[in-house]
Amino acid sequence: MRSPGVQLREITDDNRDAVRALRVRREQKRFVASVSKSLKEAARKPETNPWYRAVYLGDEPVGFVMLSWKPPAGPYQGRHFIWRLLVDKRHQRRGIGRETLTQIAALVRADGATELLTSYDPGDGEPWPFYQKFGFEPTGDIDDGEIVLRLTFPAQ
């Protein structure tokens, strides 16, 4: 299912509170940090080169995505890593997460990348099925207890 009208927008003083109010379902909280925590983490770790956007459907913020965009050092040096991806509980199962991933993959690929990475904490209700359907595959690496996944882009 495709959700047309999904846009990635910068987080500004005008929309920050609305974006920070986004929440996942209770059973998902152990898998994804809140927007507030994510923004604080981004501010605390500038060396990870955080890049984040609000996900909009029309004029309404419905999600949040944050990447480590080609950090200059560390385990993901020079690579693109999805650090956070969440869709508000009221807007899930409508194709918004998939469309967000589609747009992120296009941006990363346009930046010259051959792959997009992410990771997840295994457990009941884990996001692996979502990423697997999109085409991600396990790399075989574990990072801080999380399984690292890779989406490989075909040669252009």
What do these coordinates show?
This protein has one domain: Gcn5-related N-acetyltransferase (GNAT) (Aminopeptidase, 3-Layer(aba) Sandwich), CATH 3.40.630. Helix content is 24%, strand content 32%. The protein contains 4 helices and 7 strands. It has helices spanning 16-20, 35-44, 96-110, 128-134; strands at residues 6-9, 50-57, 60-69, 80-87, 115-120, 137-143, 146-152. It has a 7-stranded mixed beta sheet, sandwiched between helices. A hairpin with a 2-residue loop joins strand 2 (50-57) and strand 3 (60-69).
Shape: globular
| Oligomeric state | single chain
Helix content class: 10-25%
Terminal CA distance reads 26 Å
User: N-to-C SSE series?
Assistant: EHHEEEHEHEE
CATH architecture: 3-Layer(aba) Sandwich
Biggest sheet features? 7 strands, mixed
Biggest sheet: strands side by side, in what order? 1-2-3-4-5-7-6
Number of strands: 7
